Amino acid sequence: MQNKEFRFNFAQIYLILIPKFMQSTPLTIDFSTKMQAYFALSKFRLSALVVFSGGFGFVFAAENTVDWVKLSIFCLASFLITASANTINQIIEKDLDKLMTRTAKRPLPTEKLSTAEARLFSILLAIIGAFLLVFFVNFLTAFFAVLSLILYAFVYTPMKQRTPIAVFIGAFPGAFPPLIGWVAQTGELSIAAFIIFGIQFIWQFPHFWAIAWVADEDYTRAGFRLLPSAGGKDGSTAFQIMTYTMFLIPMGLLPMYYGITGLNSAIVVTLASMLFLVPTLFLLKNLDRASALRIMFASFLYLPIVQIAFLLDKL
Q1: Would 4 be classed as within a structural domain?
Q2: Number of folded domains in the chain?
Q3: Which tens digits make up the pLDDT trace of 186-229?
Q4: Which own/partner pairs from 249-257 qualify as long-range (CB within 8 Å, at least 24 positions apart)?
């Protein structure tokens, strides 16, 4: 009797629960929403740009043929670690993101994902990415990739509310990708690695300060201090943006000087640098948002043009 009663009760429970599990539509919607939220958390476009820059360094370092399998693993690992850093950044700034128009709809401020889910996501991405680099690329690449994550997520991110020096700190992880790509291919550092790092390092300043100028109202609401002068959107800031952009002209000639590339890329890079410089002169004259916006768009074009020119000239 006890066995029959148990089977009967179990059957009743089964019949009650089955219809609830068969209602798949809400679960499907929830799963889809979660996946979209995780995708947004990774900042796909930003992560893809980092991967492109790292891939440039990898191919640029190749002497003869490119190991496409190794390059694919490197790009995947780079994306995972970058997405992890982006996620940690959003965890730390969750409450600040609510204050800014451009970030208020991110997954954490809207509670599409919990902080615990985001934290687990970032840990898994970092572990898998580091594992791939250590075992399929080389340890030095993994070291620089993890160092980049630490500098971006745990040094640059907290400093953004305290001092404009945060931009200088953030320029290091921002410029690491081509250097990391070079190390992934060769297993060592070299003058060429430092040159392509240096170009991207200098590029960070006009690029990011232009973004900070355009988004100044949002950043001010969140308490971020990112423009280089105490006055904010003033002549001093515009002058520094112009000065750093001018440094890109001699920096772009270094690969030819050291025999890494030739005259063709030097001409292209010099022209690109001079065209990049033009909107900074307008900003210095007008001190307006429109000029800062032109600098921002010019910066997005400058880096891939320069990197592709170097690649084509060398290959």
Answers
A1: no
A2: 2
A3: 999 999 999 999 999 999 999 999 999 998 888 888 888 888 87
A4: 249/273, 249/274, 249/277, 251/195, 251/198, 251/199, 251/202, 252/199, 252/306, 254/195, 254/198, 254/199, 255/192, 255/195, 255/196, 255/310
- Among residues 203, 134, 210, 201, the alpha carbon closest in space to that of 173 is found at 201
Rounded mean pLDDT, 151-157: 94
Tell me the pLDDT of the chain averaged across its residues: 88
Burial of 209 (0-12, 13-18, 19+ CB in 10 A): buried
Structure tokens at 240: 């520094």
Please check whether residue 34 lies inside any domain of the structure: no
| Domain match, 283 and 167 both | no
Verify that 162 and 210 share a domain, yes or no. no
Name the residue range of residue 102's domain: 43-189
Q: Which residues, 6 or more positions from 188, have their beta carbon under 8 angstroms from its beta carbon? A: 140
238 class by beta-carbon count within 10 Å (0-12 exposed, 13-18 middle, 19+ buried): buried
Query: Looking at 144, 164, 189, which one is the last position of a domain?
Result: 189
97 vs 251, residue with greater confidence? 251
Task: Say if residue 154 is in the same domain as residue 204.
Answer: no
| pLDDT value of position 23 | 41
Q: What pTM, to 2 d.p., does this model score?
A: 0.86
**Domain final position from 189, 204, 227:** 189
Share of the chain above pLDDT 70, in %: 90
